Amino acid sequence: MGTLYLVRHGQASFGADDYDVLSPLGHRQSVRLGEYFRTKGLRFEAALTGTLNRQLQTFSGICEGMGLAFESSRDWTAGAGSAAGAAPGMEPSPLPHLLWPGLNEYDSAAVIGAIHPYPLARPDTPELYRHHFRLLKDGLAQWMAGVVSPQGMPSYNEFVAGITKALEYTRTHHQGNVLLVSSGGPIATAVGHVLGTSPETTIELNLGIRNCSVTEFAFSPKRHRLVTFNTLPHLDAPEHAGWVTFA
């Protein structure tokens, strides 16, 4: 029996020109999670991440907090390894790092654009923020139902397949602890797949996942089982109360 630790990326740059970059707080969140893993004596056989910057930066921060640097990375679609340099002052880690594009997040702008083909104002007020997420929920529901096809995105069935194949990979290749760093959409989809939730419930799970939160699956060669969801044990201390974020 193994354990898969699914981690959402740290706080990104919501509302900025480039969302796909960790904020300074997002970096601190990821390093703090790595410190927590190290304090708990947790070791991983391997790590899987998507290829988005915020996912890779979160994985790098976790490694920093654990005092590790990933040894190598390999794109599962290419099947060829490529060396990845260790951070200054850090020893290479025996932790293999597998790049898995199927763990990338959906394009929220494309999802919204499929149902609202007009430019949205920058969400810099509470009302505009709520409006953004109302449109996102509606767009996700229609994409999941096959009603719309957001530009440049796979079908929802293809999106799910990229995630379930990652789960299958962990079951068939590992028996211990595995780290998976992704985003809210893929993690909620993985939970929904394991629990058999409705699309509406999967969307609600998605939009409630906190930055750098940990979800745990116990796994055997045959199946995954949900153990914990959306936890922040590394931010329990009062001094980290202001570090809890959702975007």
General description of the model:
The chain is of the alpha/beta class and 247 residues long. It has 2 domains: 2-106 and 155-243, Phosphoglycerate mutase-like (Rossmann fold, 3-Layer(aba) Sandwich); 107-152, no CATH class. Helices cover 38% and strands 17% of the residues. The protein is built from 7 helices and 8 strands. It has helices at residues 24-39, 53-66, 108-113, 126-144, 156-173, 184-195, 199-208, and strands spanning 2-8, 46-49, 72-75, 81-83, 97-99, 177-182, 214-219, 224-231. Strands 4-3-5-2-6-1-7-8 form an 8-stranded mixed β-sheet. Strand 7 and strand 8 (224-231) form a beta hairpin. The longest helix is centred in the middle third of the chain and has 19 residues, at 126-144. The radius of gyration is 18 Å and the shape is globular. The chain starts with a strand and ends in a 16-residue tail after the last strand.
List keywords for this structure.
7 helices; 2 domains; alpha/beta; eight-stranded mixed sheet; 247 residues; 17% strand; 38% helix
Q: Which secondary structure elements does this structure contain, and how are they paired or packed?
A:
Blueprint: E1 2-8, H1 24-39, E2 46-49, H2 53-66, E3 72-75, E4 81-83, E5 97-99, H3 108-113, H4 126-144, H5 156-173, E6 177-182, H6 184-195, H7 199-208, E7 214-219, E8 224-231
Parallel strand pairs: 1-6, 2-5, 2-6, 3-5
Antiparallel strand pairs: 1-7, 3-4, 7-8
